[in-house]
């Protein structure tokens, strides 16, 4: 370890009182983003982290080269059809960003081409590298072609703050229209005739609250919807049938959908069913009916239909089942596709119209499958994305007539990768209350038991961390590590109840589940465990560091939500009011305040020995502010023993970290080198 000392963080403590409880926050000054002292402090922390980890640079460089060497840098996606065109994206060696292209469509089989070659009659519609230029950060918020294929709407962000500028490109001439709209949010939708584009904007709390209508060539946009309730946010889309524009307003527990004839963009939206607290629903369109997925008296959701003329008259199609969580429905002209979850794994059910429903079978014990790239409404094929912990991301077409799965492409992994060299397992840990917690495990065949282990977790928002493949992970497995995912409560892996048992006053189940998994692994697979998680998974990392520091050889917390109580107490911050439906409202409810205070990582740092901790954050993150990990690391240094406690801040990035693929690989290589070092595997 370097002899250099970390920067000093104490300065101007702030006293706060809530529900009669007075606390001193000695690091509150770090939230002042515009203060030059804050910037200087973060830069000094970066220097300190670089000094402490400098000896790992050769290992990080080696891992970067391994990631790069296993990646086909000049590559392209499987073309997906929309109207008269096949659309795809490709990458080129040495370039950070993807290139969006299309070619004229013929037949139902997508064109095939070898990476590095160019399809005949290719049209480049958007080159991320040209748009990015020399900017250290670049992201697209939307890239959407009009239904007639003549116009492209796209939006760009060069700061990482997720405020985008919207532009329009004539795909016939390649010229940009003079229309330019700044400060918009993600997404958007075209009218059927391509004359009008709908987009959303955010309020001061970074909540998408308004939908606007922009008519090409006109300067004055029209606000078509404003959501005044601070718990709700809005979005806009076009049904696959291109018949209706669908406007969604939803909170964490309630939703409401409005629809408008896409041929009449200046018309008035009509509500499907007025919001009722606790009722969630979303829909797709088919013929003269809507398909509605909802949770009315159906914890795991059921599928219903309703006439377009009477959209609130819901008739069940797939009744509720305790064992199956319905995730989504995709409507096509002659069939429906339902995406579901059962026993911790995803699946696909086909409803062929005049035939009996059936499910597609998959051979691996662990996998993840989902509909992907199905833009066409009239089709006899279903595009699916499939992966597992040993099978690279794969694209299939499923022929609805022959019921045949057609493998179109499996992502190449260079360097002689053979999935048969690896094995994946599902195991179960037992939580403190007797609940069985699923674990997904992957290792290289021949890896002995009691191997060093990286354990990943998330556990919030009903987000499931399904089995997935990772090129970068191979650099761990080939060095003898085991990789595991703890499917803790608060996620959605085992259905809606799994989520409900990991939120509000049951949030601590998320943390104790993770500790139970770590202890299970140490009794079966693991010699030592490093934990990793990001965002709400970073809250998990901070909580288990306080709860069971002795169980971990190291902890990586990425953009971590570790100052949860102070953030959720402040309704002026982005997303706070929306988040009250996830965590509770500590500002107005003293019981919620006490419960959150009892687990919020920043509030519960103890004078005990902690493992080394690496916190990685981004200065322009609008979801989890940089100051949360900055304050947390400062308090760890002042209060706890052990460590070292390191903070690394990307000064030009947002919540997703560095935007270019080579930059992201360098960042991942650095993190993996730190993990390997903590587990004593540096060769």
Automatic annotation (TrEMBL):
Alphabetical list of SUPFAM superfamilies matching this protein: alpha/beta-Hydrolases, Peptidase/esterase 'gauge' domain
GO biological process terms held by the UniProt record: proteolysis
InterPro entries reported in the protein's UniProt record: AB_hydrolase_fold, Pept_S9A_N, Peptidase_S9_cat, Peptidase_S9A, Serine_Peptidase_S9A
Coiled coil location: none
Keyword Hydrolase annotated: yes
GO molecular function: serine-type endopeptidase activity
Domain Peptidase S9A N-terminal: 6-409
Residues in Peptidase S9 prolyl oligopeptidase catalytic domain copies: 468-680
PANTHER family membership: PROLYL ENDOPEPTIDASE-LIKE, PROTEASE FAMILY S9A OLIGOPEPTIDASE
Protein name per UniProt: Prolyl oligopeptidase family serine peptidase
Organism: Herbidospora solisilvae
Lineage: Bacteria, Bacillati, Actinomycetota, Actinomycetes, Streptosporangiales
């Amino acid at each position: 370890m370097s002899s250099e000392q970390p920067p000093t963080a104490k300065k101007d403590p702030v006293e706060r009182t809530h529900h009669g409880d007075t606390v001193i926050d000695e690091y509150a000054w770090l939230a002042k983003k515009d203060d030059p002292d804050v910037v200087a402090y973060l830069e000094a922390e970066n220097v300190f982290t670089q000094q402490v980890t400098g000896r790992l640079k050769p290992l990080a460089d080696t891992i970067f080269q391994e990631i790069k060497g296993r990646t086909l840098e000049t590559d392209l996606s499987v073309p997906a059809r929309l109207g008269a065109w096949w659309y795809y994206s490709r990458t080129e060696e040495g370039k950070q960003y993807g290139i969006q292209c299309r070619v004229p469509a013929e037949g139902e089989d997508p064109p095939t081409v070898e990476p590095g070659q160019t399809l005949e009659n290719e049209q480049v519609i958007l080159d991320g590298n040209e748009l990015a230029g020399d900017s250290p950060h670049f992201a697209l918020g939307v890239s959407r072609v009009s239904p007639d294929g003549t116009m492209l709407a796209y939006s760009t962000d060069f700061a990482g703050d997720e405020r985008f500028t919207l532009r329009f490109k004539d795909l016939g001439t390649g010229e940009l229209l003079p229309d330019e709209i700044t400060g918009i949010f993600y997404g958007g939708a075209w009218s059927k005739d391509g004359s009008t584009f709908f987009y959303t904007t955010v309020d001061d709390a970074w909540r998408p609250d308004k939908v606007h209508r922009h008519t090409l060539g006109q300067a004055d946009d029209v606000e078509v919807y404003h959501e005044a309730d601070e718990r709700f946010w809005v979005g806009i889309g076009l049904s696959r049938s291109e018949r209706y524009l669908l406007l969604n307003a939803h909170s964490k527990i309630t939703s409401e959908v409005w629809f408008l004839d896409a041929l009449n963009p200046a018309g008035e939206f009509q509500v499907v069913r007025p919001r009722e607290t606790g009722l969630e629903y979303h829909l797709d369109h088919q013929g003269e009916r809507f398909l509605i997925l909802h949770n009315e008296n159906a914890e795991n959701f059921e599928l219903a239909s309703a006439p377009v003329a009477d959209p609130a008259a819901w008739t069940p199609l797939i009744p509720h089942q305790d064992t199956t969580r319905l995730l989504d429905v995709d409507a096509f002209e002659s069939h429906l596709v339902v995406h579901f979850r059962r026993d911790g794994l995803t699946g696909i059910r086909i409803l062929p119209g005049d035939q009996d429903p059936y499910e597609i079978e998959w051979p691996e014990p662990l996998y993840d499958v989902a509909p992907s790239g199905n833009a066409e409404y009239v089709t006899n094929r279903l595009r699916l994305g499939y992966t597992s912990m040993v099978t690279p991301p794969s694209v299939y077409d499923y022929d609805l007539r022959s019921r045949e799965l057609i493998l179109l492409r499996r992502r190449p992994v260079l360097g002689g990768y053979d999935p048969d060299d690896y094995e994946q397992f599902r195991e179960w840990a037992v939580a403190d209350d007797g609940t069985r917690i699923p674990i997904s495990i992957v290792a290289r065949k021949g890896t002995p038991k009691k191997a060093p282990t990286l354990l990943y977790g998330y556990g919030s928002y009903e987000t499931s961390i399904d089995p997935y493949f990772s090129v970068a992970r191979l650099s761990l497995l080939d060095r003898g590590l085991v990789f595991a995912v703890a499917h803790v409560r608060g996620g959605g892996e085992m259905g809606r109840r799994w989520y409900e048992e990991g939120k509000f006053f049951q949030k601590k189940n998320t943390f104790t589940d993770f500790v139970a998994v770590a202890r299970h692994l140490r009794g079966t697979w693991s010699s030592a465990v490093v934990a990793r998680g990001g965002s709400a998974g970073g809250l998990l990392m901070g909580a288990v560091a306080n709860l069971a520091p002795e169980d971990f050889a190291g902890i990586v917390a990425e953009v971590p939500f570790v100052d949860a109580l102070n953030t959720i107490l402040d309704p002026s911050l982005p997303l706070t009011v929306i988040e009250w439906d996830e965590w509770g409202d500590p500002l107005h409810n003293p019981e919620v305040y006490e419960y959150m205070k009892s687990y919020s990582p920043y509030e519960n740092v103890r004078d005990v020995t902690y493992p080394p901790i690496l916190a990685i954050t981004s200065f322009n993150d609008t979801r989890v502010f940089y100051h949360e990990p900055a304050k947390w690391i400062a308090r760890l240094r002042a209060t706890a023993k052990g460590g070292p406690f390191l903070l690394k801040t990307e000064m030009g990035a947002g919540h997703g970290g560095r935007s270019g693929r080579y930059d992201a690989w360098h960042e991942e290589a650095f993190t993996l080198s730190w993990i390997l070092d903590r587990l004593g595997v540096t060769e």
